[in-house]
Amino acid sequence: MSFIGKAMQPVWLMLGLMILAACGQSGDAASTQTKTKKAAAKAEAFSATTYSLNYSHDYYLQYTVYDLTVAEKPAIGGANVFPLGGGDQGCCIALPKQWRPGMQVLVKWSYADRDKILGSLQKELEIPKYTEPGNLFVTFHDGVEVELVVSRYSPGQPQWPGRINQEPMEHCLATESKKKLCTQWSVENITNSPSQYVEGCKGKPNNADCKEMQQYCREYGGDEEDCSIE
After folding, report:
1. DSSP conformation class of 114
2. In b/e form, how buried is each residue of 169-208, taking b as 16+ CB within 10 angstroms?
3. 87 with 52: CB under 8 angstroms?
4. Taking the chain (230 residues) in consecutive chunks of 10 residues, what is each chunk's mean pLDDT?
5. Which residues contact residue 151 at a Cβ distance below 8 angstroms, ignoring those fewer than 6 apart?
6. Coil, helix or strand for 202?
7. pTM of the predicted structure, to 2 decimals
8. How many other CB atoms are there within 10 angstroms of residue 78's CB atom?
């Protein structure tokens, strides 16, 4: 090897080490930056639990909701939902604390009567505007229409932003044209859970409709605690 070759060897070696060191520093910096961004994003987001409401007295529902705000499009909730009832909670969707337009979910659902499935539907829906963190409610109307609500409140509370500010059974009983159908549905279907007769009637001891439902609750085996509307 020539003198020049011998002299150059450490230089190339040093350059190689410098490049590797720079790459390592760059990688560390990139990793740190990514972690910082993720931490910042997490600090600016909240986790919303999914719930469901069914305002129909005609249809049983089975639904699944998918998060379209991320590439994987994971299922974030779903349940079997009785008429005039609600479904189990699901987990979860990460939403920014500051609402922004364009965030969407996909809801797929089937609706059925007591004997058979009548149809299946799906719809992409934009997350509605919200001003504070809350849960994501998937709300069904008449089996074939779905509404999204983001709120930390529930139906019946003054701050509830949904279309109907009553629990499903309470709303049905308050709608004169549906009252008989709702009562009939209750008698035919809620025989194994008497307390469901008075769902939505707590704190309304003087309400005539609630008194009627309290009587059904007692007739179908509910005790005083089950059937209390105080």
Report:
1. S
2. bbbbbeeeebeeebbebbeebbeeebebbbbbbeebeebe
3. yes
4. 41 40 46 43 82 90 94 92 86 94 96 88 97 96 91 94 91 75 63 64 82 75 81
5. 130, 134, 135, 137, 159, 160, 161, 162
6. coil
7. 0.65
8. 20
